[in-house]
Amino acid sequence: MNRRDIFRERIRLYRQDPLIFFREVTRFQPDDWQVKAARAIAEGRRLAVRSGQGVGKTAFEANVVLWFLACFPYPRVVCTAPTRQQLNDVLWAEIAKWMESSQILGLLLNWTKTRVYMRGYEKRWFAVARTATKPENMQGFHEDNMLFVVDEASGVADPILEAVLGTLSGPNNKLLYCGNPTKATGGFADAFGRDAATWYTMTVSSRDSPRTNKDNIAALEAKYGANSNVVRVRVDGLPPLAEDDVFIPISIAEQATMNEPVEHIRPSRIAIGVDVARFGDDQTVISTNIDNDIVRIDKRHGQDLYKTAEDILAAYISLHGRYSESTVYAVIDDTGLGGGVTDILRHEKEARDLNYLEVIPVNFGAAVPDKEAAQNYADISTWIWSVLRDRAQAGVLHLPNDAELIAQLSTRKYVFAGTPPKIKLESKDALKKRGLPSPDIADSVALALYEPVCYTWELG
Q1: Which member of 107, 250, 309, 441 lies 3.0 to 4.6 Å from 344 by CB, making a disulfide possible if both were Cys?
Q2: How many whole angstroms separate alpha carbon 18 and alpha carbon 15?
Q3: Which residues contact 352 (CB under 8 A, 6 or more apart)?
Q4: What's the pLDDT score for residue 454?
Q5: For 199-244, what is each residue's pLDDT tens digit?
């Protein structure tokens, strides 16, 4: 009996129990939570899983997709996520990985960059990848056997989730939400709240997963507190608590990690933001920004100013080699130690004819150079953080998925200071009194986004 015949003989069992399919077909070995989730999606219609990071949700999603696609006749499987990168580079690639691990699925299914389909039935038996950008992308799918998988569901807009719910009318239509609960409101949160009666819900902590690094969890707790929002969201799989005096809510910071990065063909602006430390607990951080995409963050501990300048020059040479017609701006925290780095870079620029390097010193305590912004913000530090926040909220800033960066952005508070009162970021001394580290990574990213504004101030 060949593999196809064995599969046909076993398919009734596979439909009833995806765990048998996992064991015999994809060779996926589920953790305890994945066992419960597989049974829930097989027996019910709607499953919502909120989790910390690294617990294996993408592997689970991929195996559920393959189970449904291979075992039910003429299915429609629609996979969506907030960004093309999350959908294609993460979930769709994971589906390919588990197909390749199977001895039979490669004979039955064909994988392409946007579709997986049953051989010979391309138009009626398939899974498709659709980025969650417009509600109409989710409409027009109606079959008796249909599965929707929404990855990083907290980052998907409510109208799109509503469009997904509106398609589920067939007898074997199923819906799977998975993701970090980065927001306390919205369609994903509602599955655990007001709509919980119509959902099977699960909360999976990174603490309980054999896949996660417990030392990293302990370090995050030690730095930011076991009850901090970054630990709640990224470790415990719980939604953030409201903090009215936080300058950048964690939902905005997390959303920026899911915003679609731009293609770097002819960049309009390339900048290197540098927050300078020397020795001690703080770190020197060098962040590279290409058109509001933070493509790289380099962290250094205990190095002198000359080595920091060398690192910046190496970054400049690499960027100039790739984008030879673009100016590269090196934006340096010039307060204190940073002034030495500024001096070294200016000397090297002149000595080595680095014509496409522009060195821009920034004093975090200086006045805001933008007239309109100066009416609202007490200093340049607060203003450039507001630029970061506003671009993240507008969906035009892409941040790397760095837990420390998100924690630093989402724990810094603000006050009203001066007459008339203006918004002012919490000082670094105040942060340290609360037991929090210096926001060196966040400052570096904010500097990388800074664009100087030149005004002639009227005297009067």
Answers
A1: 309
A2: 6
A3: none
A4: 47
A5: 999 999 999 999 999 999 999 999 999 999 999 999 999 999 988 8
pLDDT for res 280:
66
pTM for the model = 0.88
Q: Which residues contact 385 (CB under 8 A, 6 or more apart)?
A: 247, 248, 412, 425, 442, 446
- The pLDDT score that the predictor gives to residue 263 is 87
* CB contact burial 232-250 (16+ within 10 A = b; e otherwise): bbbbbbbbbeeeeebbbbb
pLDDT (tens digit, 9 = 90+) per residue, 105-130? 999 999 999 899 999 999 999 999 99
Residues 6+ apart with CB under 8 A from 57: 49, 51, 151, 178, 179, 204
Helix, strand, coil shares, percent, the chain, to 5 = 45, 20, 35
What SS3 state is found at 100?
A: helix
What are the structural domains, with CATH classification, of the chain? 3-208 (3.40.50.300), 250-449 (3.30.420.240)
pLDDT of residue 1: 66
pLDDT reported for residue 453:
61
Q: What is the pLDDT of residue 360?
A: 96
pLDDT of residue 97: 97
Could you tell me if 245 and 434 are in contact, meaning their C-beta atoms sit under 8 angstroms apart? Answer: no
**Residue 383 is inside which H or E element, if any?**
helix 380-394
Quick one: DSSP state of residue 212?
S
Please give the pLDDT value at position 415. Answer: 93
- Tell me the C-alpha distance between 328 and 36, whole Å: 52
